[in-house]
Write a structure and sequence with these properties.
Layout: E1 11-18, E2 28-31, E3 34-35, E4 40-44, H1 51-58, E5 66-71, E6 74-75, H2 81-87, E7 88-91, H3 103-108, H4 112-122, H5 129-137, H6 153-166, E8 171-175, H7 183-200, E9 203-207, H8 211-217, E10 220-225, E11 228-234, H9 235-238, H10 241-248, E12 250-254, E13 260-265
Parallel strand pairs: 4-9, 4-10, 7-8, 8-9
Antiparallel strand pairs: 1-2, 1-3, 1-5, 5-6, 10-11, 12-13
Helix pairs in contact: 2-4, 5-6
Pfam families: ABC_tran
GO molecular function, one term: ATP binding
Organism: Corynebacterium anserum
């Protein structure tokens, strides 16, 4: 797995802004964020605040309209898809239909970054050592030979994680990784991600809607609201009662045991500013 040079961030943005065509306002505006090797960070914010768009910009899938994104010191505007894939992998919200392909074969396609398209197509059996290791790490080896489209939503979620791990990039981005999972499997997924990240020394950034789980899992949180980064830092220090009230309209606090204690809904007291 390629590693970032000592002291170099895995990804860093500079006054990054992005607007979808015909959108009246920028979806992400003036964002500065840096992710270093080994970090475990959650991006949180209300619906429509720009979380997934921010993640796609960090992954190099979208290019900023203003400012820049650098992956290990290289501007994403200058990078090809394969070079970008060596530095960062994104686990998307949805896995599109893949009729007639097994879990093992799909996960093997994560070889793209190291082998290119033709190399990937020449090794589709999914029986190589690296692919098997990723199947095991994500806990999907038991149904490795089943068709992907026959799986439940939660099982497909784990397959997406195995596919992301197979890319072997030092930065792992997860877009709502807990969707379609019950509470038991939500905890299990986060434990799996933490274990793999620690074992492989990955930087991990996850968009999470589940505030209580973000508090338990993340060492750092990036809070976005209306496209602006409104807070960034240690979870227990950032998620103050005032911020939870302004951004999430909750009367709540983070306890010493790293849990979220919710008292109730707060009255809207104006928008959080960037």
């Amino acid at each position: 797995m390629p590693e970032a040079p000592a002291g170099m961030p895995l990804v860093e943005t500079c006054n990054m802004s992005f607007r979808y065509p015909k959108a009246p306002t920028a979806t992400v505006e003036g964002v500065n964020v840096r992710i270093d090797p080994g970090e475990r960070c959650a991006i949180i914010g209300p619906n429509g605040s720009g979380k997934s768009t921010l993640l796609s910009l960090l992954a190099g899938l979208n290019m900023p309209e203003e400012g820049s994104v650098h992956l290990q010191g290289v501007d994403t505007r200058t990078m090809g898809r394969r070079e970008c894939a060596r530095k960062v992998t994104l686990m998307p919200q949805v896995l599109p239909p893949v009729p007639g392909i097994s879990v093992r074969e799909l996960v093997a396609q994560g070889r793209f970054a190291e082998s290119g398209v033709w190399g990937m197509l020449r090794h589709t059996s999914g029986k190589d050592e690296d692919t098997v290791a990723c199947l095991v790490a994500a806990g999907v080896e038991v149904f490795a030979d089943r068709d992907v489209d026959s799986l439940s939503g939660g099982e497909r979620q784990r397959v997406r994680l195995a596919l992301a791990l197979r890319q072997h990039a030092p930065l792992l981005l997860l877009d709502e990784p807990l969707a379609h999972l019950d509470i038991h499997h939500q905890f299990d997924m986060l434990d799996t991600v933490s274990h793999v990240a620690e074992e492989q020394k990955l930087g991990v950034v996850a968009v999470l809607h589940e505030l209580d789980l973000a508090v338990r899992w993340a060492k750092r949180v990036v809070v976005v609201h209306n496209g602006h980064l409104v807070a960034d830092g240690k979870t227990s220090e950032v998620l103050t009662p005032d911020l939870l009230r302004r951004v999430f309209h909750l009367e709540a606090r983070v306890t010493r045991q790293q849990t979220l204690e919710i008292v109730g809904q707060a009255e809207c007291v104006g928008e959080a500013s960037g």
